[in-house]
Design a protein that fits this description.
Helix content is 0%, strand content 31%. It has 189 residues and is an all-beta fold.
Length: 189
């Protein structure tokens, strides 16, 4: 008896770790060795590699492959058809499994639909990667990045609203931030 939900078309290769309350939907595949936290949602056609780590309350939308060496911390959102890579210079005729570069997505970060994240980068907590962006470099905490290649375009509140650059006070939840040395710091609490 499991304490997570697995759709009958999903494949879960044992042994792996899957937390209580997690839902694994149609045609998903979790490889042996994968670690998935509690109350996650893995949408249709999601793949989770053997050394991938997914924290608690993570939402991975349809058609996403979370390959080996990718770590998604707690409460990360990954939009539909986002792409993670794990090798910088792949060749079909050359095995590079010993060259996987780790990718880290910090807690409560968002990756928009159809974004591509190159292996070896770190996306900071509360960062927001816009839909279709191509991330080839690290993304600072709370940073909004958009475009190809992804470039800093503003700052995001913990609640997911874009911060006005003049006041740095969220119009939604009213959290206040200050710029310090090219990064932002939350002033409330």
């Amino acid at each position: 008896m499991t304490d997570y939900f697995k759709h009958e078309s999903a494949v879960v290769d044992e042994p792996c770790e899957i937390g209580a309350g997690t839902k694994i939907w149609h045609f998903a595949h979790v490889m042996s060795g994968a670690r998935i936290g509690e109350r996650c949602t893995l949408g249709q056609n999601v793949f989770v590699g053997a050394t991938a780590v997914i924290g608690n309350r993570v939402k991975v939308q349809n058609n996403v492959s979370v390959f080996d060496s990718v770590t998604l911390e707690d409460e990360v959102f990954v939009g539909p058809s986002a792409v993670f890579t794990n090798v910088v210079n792949p060749r079909a005729h050359v095995s590079r499994k010993d060259s996987y570069l780790p990718t880290l997505v910090g807690r409560r970060a968002t990756i928009g639909a159809n974004a591509t994240v190159r292996c070896g980068v770190t996306i900071g907590e509360y960062a927001f990667v816009g839909a279709g962006a191509v991330v080839a470099d690290d993304v600072a905490p709370h940073s909004l990045v958009i475009g190809v290649p992804a470039r800093h375009s503003g700052w995001m509140c913990r609640c997911g609203a874009r911060l006005p650059e003049d006041t740095m006070e969220c119009r939604g939840c009213h959290d206040r931030y200050a710029l310090e040395g090219g990064a932002i710091k939350r002033m409330d609490g």
